């Protein structure tokens, strides 16, 4: 049995597949613990895994550029306080293997010092979006430097030295492999619903011929947008359709005016709804298109 520590970024498209991988690893006899920001802890515990809170997640947030949606994520993902706590957690846990979310530069920067095998998990494409990832890392590092801290290494220096880069996507969806990146493995999508995303009964019988539309945007609080959800509901209000909209708990029902043809849910398993849906309105993340693809193949 291996003791595995997952240094996690609990983004909407990151944590559910991580939990799915952890579930399979547990079924095979391994022990998996997650370390991450405070928002991660209840979700990991609900899934049945041990959660270690990175209490320094936002200790230096006041030094980062203010008034931006990414201020808090940038602090958690790059700040020296988080770097130090990550190092302390790895030392205390002494795991056999460290798994690191690809979006976590503060952890990746010290992977070479952990003294144990490390793998990077990319919960989307690698090669198709490699230049985009480089820009994202540059943006976060720019915010770190604006906070007065020394810069971190670029993406290539953080990802490529690791023993494995594991993409939870399909190689057929990705661009051709780039030279010098033979450590990348495509494991395929991990379509894991969190435990609170359970099948929900719909008020319309399955034989109802009225087309069904599902609306599902990001589950990440930093990307919450009540106005976008309201515009989507309003746009569909006058059509002869049934609408199911999920808010992921980051938009309160009291913030929205729900048309008569719509049902609003905090969380719901997407697969049963997608099987009935004629249209899915989404923010274009990796998870929902993969679920649509899987649903179409069933």
Structure write-up:
The chain has 298 residues and is an alpha/beta fold. The protein has two domains: 3-186, Rossmann fold (3-Layer(aba) Sandwich), CATH 3.40.50; 212-297, 3-Layer(aba) Sandwich (Rossmann fold). It is built from ten helices and eleven strands. Strands 3-2-1-4-5-6-7 form a seven-stranded parallel sheet, sandwiched between helices. Strands 10-9-8-11 form a four-stranded parallel sheet. Helix 8 (226-236) links the parallel strand 8 (212-216) and strand 9 (242-246). Helix 3 (71-78) crosses helix 6 and helix 9 packs across helix 10. The longest helix has 17 residues, at 130-146. The two termini are 34 Å apart.
Number of DSSP strands?
Answer: 11
Please state how the strands of the largest beta sheet are arranged side by side: 3-2-1-4-5-6-7
The CATH superfamily label of the largest domain reads: Glycogen Phosphorylase B
Given helix and strand content, the structural type is alpha/beta
CATH class of the largest domain: Alpha Beta
What is the assembly state of the chains in this entry? single chain
